């Protein structure tokens, strides 16, 4: 009798590729601006070559439609931003915003964020990592798919520079508490909240339309910020 195949928990993907339909503007951006903004996963990543300059680098995991990432990049031109997203229309939407607003400090990977962090990002090189409103995988049997797990905390420690930070935000209280427990249990990161739990939303994280609508309905949003020691 053969033994059941064991799956490495760290290799369980936290996303499902849902490509959806792209708008005309997104399709145009995908066809005409890909080489300008998107990086090739199979090639080595050199930040200076990619951005044309040396600057602190912030990675955003799963930027959705890119509204928040574009706003942050426009407000902080002294920083470089690397967005990673598997949803192709979202990539197109972000490129459309970058082109319309003349934003030059963003580059994009259309790929699995964990693989990019593991294989392309130099150790102890990141000023920050953002994870805003990740899929909460509500059902208990799907909790293993949540991106924040012990192996992810190890990866944060490996890729963040000393003094760098990890910032997560979610509108699912259970996931917020789950992330808090996992991050607090790991080594090498310190909670930036004076009360040891959640932080007020910092000014650099823009409110999304979805978040604004939820807040108007009385829904909560929880921000976690942990600094690399």
UniProtKB/TrEMBL annotation:
Residue intervals passing through the bilayer: none
Keyword Transferase found: yes
Pfam families (UniProt xref): Methyltransf_4
This protein's record includes keyword DNA-binding: no
Keywords annotated in UniProt: Methyltransferase, S-adenosyl-L-methionine, Transferase, tRNA processing
EC number: 2.1.1.33
Catalysis performed (reactions): guanosine(46) in tRNA + S-adenosyl-L-methionine = N(7)-methylguanosine(46) in tRNA + S-adenosyl-L-homocysteine
Highest taxon listed in the record's lineage: Bacteria
Any one of the GO CC terms: tRNA methyltransferase complex
Family: Belongs to the class I-like SAM-binding methyltransferase superfamily. TrmB family.
Task performed by this protein: Catalyzes the formation of N(7)-methylguanine at position 46 (m7G46) in tRNA.
Protein name: tRNA (guanine-N(7)-)-methyltransferase
Originating species: Methylomonas koyamae
């Amino acid at each position: 009798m053969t033994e059941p195949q064991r799956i490495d928990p760290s290799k369980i993907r936290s996303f499902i590729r849902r490509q959806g339909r792209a708008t005309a503007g997104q399709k145009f951006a995908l066809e005409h601006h890909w080489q300008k903004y998107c990086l090739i996963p199979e090639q080595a990543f050199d930040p200076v070559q990619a951005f044309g300059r040396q600057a602190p680098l912030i990675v955003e995991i799963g930027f959705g439609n890119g509204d928040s990432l574009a706003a942050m990049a426009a407000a902080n031109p002294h920083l470089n931003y690397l967005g990673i997203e598997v949803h192709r229309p979202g990539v197109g939407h972000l490129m459309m915003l970058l082109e319309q607003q003349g934003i030059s400090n963003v580059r994009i990977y259309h790929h699995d964020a964990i693989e990019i962090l593991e294989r392309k990002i130099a150790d102890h090189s990141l000023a920050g990592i953002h994870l805003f409103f990740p899929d909460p995988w509500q059902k208990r049997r799907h909790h293993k798919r949540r991106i924040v797990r012990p192996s992810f905390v190890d990866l944060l420690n490996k890729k963040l520079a000393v003094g760098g930070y990890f910032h997560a935000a979610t509108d699912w209280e259970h996931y917020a508490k789950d992330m808090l427990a996992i991050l607090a249990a790991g080594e090498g990161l310190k909670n930036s909240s004076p009360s040891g739990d959640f932080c007020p939303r910092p000014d650099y994280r823009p409110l999304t339309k979805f978040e604004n609508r939820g807040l108007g309905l009385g829904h909560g949003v929880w921000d976690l910020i942990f600094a690399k020691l």
